[in-house]
Amino acid sequence: MNKRTIRDLDPSGKRILVRVDLNVPLKDGKVADDTRIRATLPTIRYLRERGGMVVLASHLGRPKGPDPKQSLTPVAERLRELLGVPVLLLPDSVGEAVRTAVLAMVPGDVVLLENTRFHPEEEANDAAFAKQLAAGCDAYVNDAFGTAHRAHASTEGVARVLPAYAGFLLEKELEALGGLLAEPKRPFLAIVGGAKVSTKIDVLRALIERVDALAVGGGMANTFLSATGHAVGTSLREADKEAEARAILQRAKEREIDLHIPSDAVCAPTPDAPSGKVRDVDHVPADEAMLDAGPRTLEEYASAIATAKTIFWNGPVGVFEKAPFAVGTKRIAELLAASKATTVVGGGESVQAVEELGLASTMTHVSTGGGASLELIEGKVLPGVAAIPDR
To answer: CA dist 332 to 131, 215, 345, Å?
Structure first.
């Protein structure tokens, strides 16, 4: 981590535009999970307490224009409660009214711009829109790791207009995930699950060159099983990715690393079934699907976890949103919680699992960015990070 951070910035008397990731789930007009909001607090507090004026910017959802249902109003309310100070939600993210409100701020003030994605220019990384976002501000801080892989106006464009710095959360993410790439303690185990191989082929390719063991689970494991001649019934699989799966298996063999794919699974006709039956992967009925890791597979995963000193986990190993098929994913979370290894949970539903089980605090690092964490592991340049100058 050699990027310029807020420790290199004197915030006193400055209006600082801070890109945060407040893209949180809402339910009945309230924030349903405030994990991402809490993650922003150290940076906000640091800047305020040193005399800065904090202008927060974030998106929420994928609106097709101004939409009251995707307003940041509930987020502002929760932010006020967590910070314990007033947080004024401005009526828009750009415009004269916004600029006037920003210029009227005094040290310690916090305002929140309305959803940046109410404007299509945000995702288009429009230069004029970036200048409007920056209006009245003296510096820019990116603390939104979850969107750092997107070259949007508020994540990359503004860094061309204002002096740019990394916030504490962005710094923490880069150090934790970068550590996996640089000098992980070995043996290094990666557990990669989720529905589709197609979304994670690149990360599997990258990991197979770095890890000592790889466990593939979830729906994506079905493609690996099918690629090795197993009949997978009605299980989700991607026939057009079977060659890719075989190439990964071959590379694991060449590197002499352990690659674990399920040996048994919990099967049922549909994910809505009230329960499933444990089947050997060689005996999956034609009218059933593999919906969770079986007990023998979980024991194989447990053995790999027990010997690892660094573990990266991304993606559930079953249909986690359905209780009868969430057992495997919960078991992985519990095994990581009990492990003495460096444990990094790489975003998405695996984060949801450790949060719901109250195990997040037992992990070495829980990433706030699913797509961003995977792209960083793949070795890709994240535009929001590249836009911040080195020290």
So the answer is: 46, 11, 11
